[in-house]
Amino acid sequence: MEKAWDIEFQDVCMGYGETVVLEDISVTLPGGKISAVLGGSGGGKTTMLRHIIGLSRPMSGRVLLGGKDLFALPERDLRMIRRRMGVLFQDGALLGQLTVAENTGLPLTEHTKLPPGPIREMVLHKLSLVGLADFADYYPSELSGGMKKRAGLARALVTDPPLLLCDEPTSGLDPISAAQMDELLLDMKERFPDMTIVSVSHDLASVRAVADHVIVLRDKAIAYSGALEDLEGSDDPYLRRFLDRVPQGRAASDDPRLAEPEGIRRKIHQALGF
Ligand SMILES: Nc1ncnc2c1ncn2[C@@H]1O[C@H](COP(=O)(O)OP(=O)(O)OP(=O)(O)O)[C@@H](O)[C@H]1O
Ligand SMILES: [Mg+2]
């Protein structure tokens, strides 16, 4: 097995169209570790993941996986690298017309010629890891939000990928399921010590439970990159607010849209018969 892949961002600008979301980022997520990406909503966490997966191309700069620039690779090599990534999208991203088992097996049916028997066996194993073995033949619409998320994780794990990318694996889960999800990530890490895991999260309890390395995004930049313990001891006011869950406070604003549209509200309520 080759060495675990570092993920390196070198002077990367990321965004959409003309809008820059993250500006001139240089940071390394260490291979073989669990890194957590923290930051406020809309701060660019999912955007950062999209650039690791190669779904979005940097506006400038380079993203290197195991020293290789995704966008400088021939199409065939890019496909090979993508195959080595397990991705849990923020909403699970299950295909509605396929059963849970078919969804989970998708990376295997798409990329290999393995017969259905062994695929089904591996799928049931992964589904039992996430507590869904009894739901293999359900359709996604028959699952709860948290179950969809766990099915998404089973799919991300079905190939035992060297690189696992999770977007908010615990959001929307009750505290017990969230803790189980953390356990699963730690368990995967134990089974596959070379696995590099990146987990985007708002959930500090979860980050504290799983992360070796933490980066915090703020104002289009990296506000922190380092060990979790050092972050805990930080006296940076923003990081402290983040860690201690202190709200931003109500900014005084003259945006007229913040004022209650009283007249219109009355009309709407009348129209609704309230
Ligand atoms: N496909 C897209 N096209 C255009 N703009 C986008 C797109 N996806 C995200 N954005 C913008 O990029 C910014 C960062 O979004 P992103 O989804 O990366 O945030 P996030 O940190 O993941 O937030 P959350 O915690 O709410 O998931 C936002 O301002 C958003 O409007
Ligand atoms: Mg997001």
Description:
This protein is of the alpha/beta class. It has two domains: 7-84 and 162-272, P-loop containing nucleotide triphosphate hydrolases (Rossmann fold, 3-Layer(aba) Sandwich); 95-160, no CATH class. It contains ten helices and ten strands. It has helices spanning 45-53, 75-83, 100-111, 116-129, 145-157, 175-191, 204-210, 228-232, 237-244, 262-272; strands spanning 7-16, 19-29, 34-39, 60-65, 68-69, 85-88, 163-167, 196-200, 213-218, 221-227. It has a six-stranded mixed beta sheet with strand order 6-7-8-3-9-10. Strands 2-1-4-5 form a four-stranded antiparallel beta sheet, with helices on one face. Strand 7 (163-167), helix 6 (175-191) and strand 8 (196-200) form a beta-alpha-beta unit. The chain is globular, with a radius of gyration of 21 Å. The protein starts with 6 loop residues before the first strand and ends with a helix. Magnesium ion (MG) binds at residues 45-46, 90, 167.
